[in-house]
Specification:
This protein has 225 residues and is an alpha/beta fold.
């Protein structure tokens, strides 16, 4: 039986179809999960996609954390289910307390829409198990509030526990320690600002994101049974 990936859809999400298409392209099965649903039953992995959930009012992710589906997402994560937040999804996961730190406005207060290079720092997460440590991946970014920040104690913990998942090779937004993505203590919840779902087709310029989504499918596959 194929693993099923649920893609959470909030009012204001705009990358959910990209995620559905990319997961299908690499051989997975994906379906939308409405933010008002109270269950993610039947899903083997979850993606919280990019966009502007609830218009990013107050600050990105601050309202989305209260959507009914988030209780189900928290329970799913607590049970070890793989959860990946991409861009706005990363912001939602930090606001919901599923990941440490926060995303603030980019250094220079500029919206960034370009392709950058990230380095894989660890392969023991739901998003990087099929990658090789040290891999450099060309993946697009598309954000205004992608500048990752945390306090000194949190940063030390992330480093000590090998929980920085990917780092920018050339930091575009001012993120502390060049951090582009982090994971939780269980290593099953990952958030990152770059968009791997937009780097799965050679015709779009890069297929480097596919290894990350294949890692998610591999993690999801361990729950199929």
């Amino acid at each position: 039986m194929a693993a099923r990936v649920g893609v959470i859809l909030f009012p204001g999400s705009n990358c959910e179809l990209d995620a559905l298409e990319a997961i299908g392209h690499i051989g997975g099965t994906a379906e939308l999960v409405w933010h008002g649903d109270r269950s993610v039953e039947g899903c083997d992995a979850l993606v919280v996609p990019g966009g502007f959930a609830h218009g990013d009012y107050l600050r990105p992710g601050a309202i989305a954390r209260f959507s009914p589906v988030m209780d189900a997402v928290r329970n799913f994560a607590a049970e070890g289910g793989p959860v990946v937040g991409i861009c706005n999804g990363f912001q939602v996961l930090t606001e919901a307390g599923l990941l440490p730190g926060a995303l603030q406005k980019n250094a220079g207060l500029k919206f960034l829409c370009t392709t950058i290079t990230v380095r894989v720092e660890t392969t023991t997460t739901a998003l990087t198990s099929q990658a090789t440590q040290g891999d450099e991946l060309r993946i697009p970014i598309n954000h205004f509030e992608g500048n990752y920040t945390c306090d000194a104690n949190t940063l030390a913990q992330l480093r000590d526990e090998d929980r920085v998942v990917v780092r920018y090779v050339d930091n575009p937004n001012g993120s502390v320690d060049n951090i582009a993505g982090v994971c939780n203590e269980g290593r099953n919840v990952v958030g990152l600002m770059p968009h791997p779902e937009r780097a799965c087709h050679r015709l779009l310029g890069s297929e480097d994101g596919a290894v990350l989504l294949r890692s998610l499918l591999a993690s999801a596959g361990t729950r199929v049974g």
